[in-house]
Amino acid sequence: MDPMYLFYFLLGIVIFFGAEFCGRGWNGEVTSLRQTTMLRGIAAAGVMLHHMGQKTCAPWHPRNVIVHGLDFFVPIGTLFVGIFLFCSGMGLFKSLKAKPDYLHGFLRRRIVPILVVFFVSEAVYLAVRLAMGQRMSLLDGILYLLGLHMANPNAWYVIVIPFFYLFFWLAFRLCRRDGTAIMWVTLAALAYTLLGASLDHSAAWWMCGEWWYNSMMLFPLGMLFAKYEERVLNFFRKGYWLWLAVAFTAMLLLQQLNALAADSWWGYYGETWGDPLKVVHRLGCTVMQWLACLGVVVFCGLLMMKFRIGNRILAFLGGLSLELYLIHGLFVELFGYDFMEFTQSLYYIKHVPLYLVVVTACSLASAVLLRQACRPLIQRLAPRGGSERRLPAAELREREEQNPGAQGDRGGEQEQQPDAEGVGQNAAEHGGD
């Protein structure tokens, strides 16, 4: 028997172990921190498997190095990123509504921790690149250390998300109405997408490909859902099983249309054949990917309305996802058929099941070490003090009665973003989808 069948079987067990069916009732924790942490754990594993799939069996590799087994994950990295971004936007809005002074010190608390981990990981990648024999000028080395060139090509998300933190902070600082603020964040996401679609692919600089922008619209969509959460959930409770079947069918159909748009209809690489409508075609592909991501998010949300997921493995992955996202690509390359496309890898593991085990084990261990190494500096630069005052329960209930769309879990911190304590850290994907 192909050992990859066993892998997919075990993956299913990891995802659904400990899940509880709610029977005729509903999962009242569907958007709670605990449940979204579990969902992020699944997405974190998916991102890592996506990159391993790209390295082992993506169709753009030479035939002699393609080894099948992880083909399922090659085209779906964007979908996992969409989950993270949706949870991020949702969590930000829910935290804002639960804490009246949430925006005070927001940028320091949210941006500093991810930048610390980013720059430490970039230094690690640069050191490994040099140790593996990459030759570069002093200027190139400085650009890598500053993050202007990507020593870790998977780290685009950590560069982009601080800008969206800033958009969120500015919008809710300057706008009195939640709907207006969400509109401005949405416009920022649209402008960012248009900028990304107008740029051709490049090797090292920022905005070097469609993976930098093709899922960012899920961020404001998560905020919009959080504003009208109870209304949306009540809508889907009526005829739930029909909606679940429709969502499952739509998810599969949208992914097929997404693949056709990127591979057959339009494509992102119009600069290679002189496409005069390359920007329009990129935007068309991007819209299809937004819809595909939204289809996955809706189906997962509907499923979680009836199934309460959770186990220690998913909680561990969900809490470690920032460090895991930043460090796993190093081992994807060190044990792949080459290293960063410029030299031989440290040790080529062609047997996919063994490659899976080695890359996963090394990534998890290194992610833990990376967190421990960064923790003292993060605590020094962005201490988590008592500036975030939660609303008293009575006041929160009064606000929810006045604005039913703001209802949600009252169990504390809702934000699904990277922080020094590892609560709600994001992962992302890079290219090739």
Describe the structure.
- The chain is mainly alpha-helical and 433 residues long.
- The protein has one domain (31-406).
- The protein contains 15 helices and two strands.
- The protein has helices at residues 3-16, 33-57, 77-98, 106-131, 138-146, 156-174, 178-197, 218-227, 229-237, 240-265, 278-306, 312-319, 321-334, 352-381, 393-402; strands at residues 20-21, 307-308.
- The protein has a two-stranded antiparallel ribbon.
- The longest helix has 30 residues, at 352-381.
- The radius of gyration is 21 Å and the shape is globular.
- 46% of the residues are buried.
One letter per element, helices H and strands E, the order comes to HEHHHHHHHHHHEHHHH
Q: Measure the end-to-end span.
A: 29 Å
Low-confidence stretches: 393-433
User: Which structural class should the secondary elements be placed in?
Assistant: mainly alpha
How many distinct beta strands?
Answer: 2
| Overall domain count | 1
Helical residue percent band: 55-70%
How much strand content do the residues show?
under 5%
Could you describe the largest sheet, including whether it forms a barrel?
2 strands, antiparallel
